Amino acid sequence: MGEALPVDYHTKHQANTKIWEISKEAAVAGKFPISKSHYSLIFIADAHWKIGQEKMGLDIVEPNTCVRGCCSSNSIPLHLPPSSFTLLSAIAKGAESVVYEAILDGKKVAAKKPILSTSEELDKFHKELQLLCQLHHPGIATLLAAHAKPPNYLFFFEFYEKTNLAHQLHVEEWIPDLDQALSIMLQLAKALQYLHNKGIIHRDVKPANVLLDRDFSACLADFGLAEYKKDLRRVSTVNWRSSGKPTGGFHKKNMVGTLIYMAPEILTKEIHTEKSDVYSFGVSINELLTGVIPYTDIRAEAQAHTVLEMNYTEQQLTSAVSSGGLRPVLAGIESGVPASMLSLIQKCWDANPQNRPSFNDIVLELDDMLQQRKKMEKEDLSLHQPPISHVHQVMDDVNNLHTYQEKINWSTQGECVSKGASFGVHSGFRMWLDGFDDPLAYHLVLSWGSFATCGRRESMEDMHFLMPFLCNEKDVHAFGIFDGHRGAAAAEFSVQALPEFLKALGSMCSPADALVEAFVRTDVAFRDELDSHRKSRRVIQKDWHPGCTAAVALIVKNKLFVANAGDCRTILCRRGCPVALSRDHVASCPEERNRVVSAGGEVKWQVDTWRVGRAALQVTRSIGDDDLKPAVTAEPEITETVLSVEDEFLVMASDGLWDVVSDMEVTNIIRDTVKEPAMCSKRLATEAAERGSKDNITVIVVFLCPVSTAERVY
Ligand SMILES: Nc1ncnc2c1ncn2[C@@H]1O[C@H](COP(=O)(O)OP(=O)(O)OP(=O)(O)O)[C@@H](O)[C@H]1O
Ligand SMILES: [Mn+2]
Ligand SMILES: [Mn+2]
């Protein structure tokens, strides 16, 4: 056994103190490397890597170097008698190595056997070994021994029972509580702080390279890409010259495995710095909090490949991340994650490396959060504050996903605000009805129904209302769908507020004007409400700008008014053929794109299509979205249709339906379904789900003539 290892072990309180780690035997034998008086502190390491070695009792055979003589260690045996180890089953097959469960000197260990077919790969083995011999930290996977002589090249590591963090999150679907998550983050941050203080950049920080022990304590592993910062310029240049591609695991196996953790500057082929590790750390800890694979909305790995491949190509993602500012969906404050942690994550993945904190800062911040939590635990939480909910409790409760910190009930808010506007008095629709007083006009016989499903999403952000006989008026009917994004708040608010505004406006202006005005007032009221919650700090998540699209159909006698803002769609079936009563307001529509741009908005091709602003919104009109106002207007487009005996039914639906079923198919499906509006709605939603719609799906069907007639029409 070696006597002592000098390490720079910086922590919050011991910054810049040179500390010596010494093995227990050396300490017991009094073999200190230098006289105590020279140093303020002697640190006897109790990290498990040492204990592991003590149990091992493997002899170091001098000279303890690799076959080339470039790797050496005074504590880690570098060549072993073949009888001292046995490889058992393979536990992981990477692009660069196979990792086996193994027995080394009677103890269960992990043996990493690199694939060495070229001389470069052999060089790489030596480099990784040189590096690993220098690393001694409780947050770094412990190298117990190595075998660095032909024909066997092997690394032996401490065995981590729970394998890696990616496996736990996406295969085991493990949901850590906040304390577990915080402790993993801190262990990782300390390991990276240690590396950076040694001048080493890891370059492959990701959950798959975080190993977990039985008690979920975390270790950073896989130094296959790690480099001394001073060598990086040369290494990177050589790599790019030889492959034309950036290094960093970019092109090995499934590109998303690593690409999604790569900082924008790396994607544009700049040189790695400490700050690119900080970026990868940010993406990784957000993944730990959300349990969701970055740039998808899925948890389980089994589903990952197809969806990832469908959503983005390598190039799309590269350009969206590096020039479009795209980032994974941030963990929600509703899951109990403290706002300070969310803002730390955002700082870590800032586009400008200089704005990212260093690991010294990160360790301090995480440490503070940990102390805070401990303090809160001590004080009686139940007295004043609800206990911080564990992430999984909220995740399990789909309906809670978008209720924010103090649980603002947006639908109650919507009701109150709009009732206040109409003073709770409704003076009737005389003006509307008198306006169309033609005794010979076609008389509608209505039946209506709806169906709404969350689909494959984790939460429901669609809302709708069915209000036949509005205010008990036999000839006035209203139906509406709201499709929320960035949370359900705007949709929940609007489904209450908009019909109230509409009722209040019924006595003041024409149906078309009333619809426009109701949309605009709902939007203003919602944004005001959100603002006041921000001021009163009930909403503390910065950059939370919920919105919703909206479609409302208003029938007054034989006239149908359809108001639309966004990509919900309304069609009318006339003599068996679909007639569009609304136009989708999306950035891929040139007119809308021009309108947004002339209103001062920014439209860019991002990921897969045209999108608006930093938020990368696909729709160009909506209620809410206050970061994109006024360009993304709430003002609807209105169509006005005189209904006649030729008109059979109306279908309104959120884009979850229209994404996968065409207007014509919708009419055909209704033709083949029992003429019952709720059944037809359900049939359409089911069809959309079966065709792979990934969104919430809401469908409203309104028959405009007696069902027997509808049946006869076909
Ligand atoms: N000490 C260990 N204990 C338990 N499992 C381990 C250990 N070391 C590695 N593994 C498992 O093997 C996997 C691959 O290990 P590692 O990342 O070191 O290899 P690699 O070939 O460099 O992989 P990659 O293809 O990600 O670069 C890990 O994600 C982990 O699941
Ligand atoms: Mn790995
Ligand atoms: Mn690797």
UniProtKB/TrEMBL annotation:
Q: Which CDD domains match?
A: PP2Cc
| Name of protein | Protein kinase and PP2C-like domain-containing protein
User: So which cofactors does this thing need?
Assistant: Mg(2+); Mn(2+)
Q: Which family does it belong to?
A: In the C-terminal section; belongs to the PP2C family.
Question: What would be one Pfam family of this protein?
Answer: Pkinase
Q: Indicate the segments forming the Protein kinase domain, all copies.
A: 85-370
Gene3D superfamilies documented for this protein: PPM-type phosphatase domain (3.60.40.10), Transferase(Phosphotransferase) domain 1 (1.10.510.10)
Question: Where do the PPM-type phosphatase domain residues begin and end?
Answer: 447-704
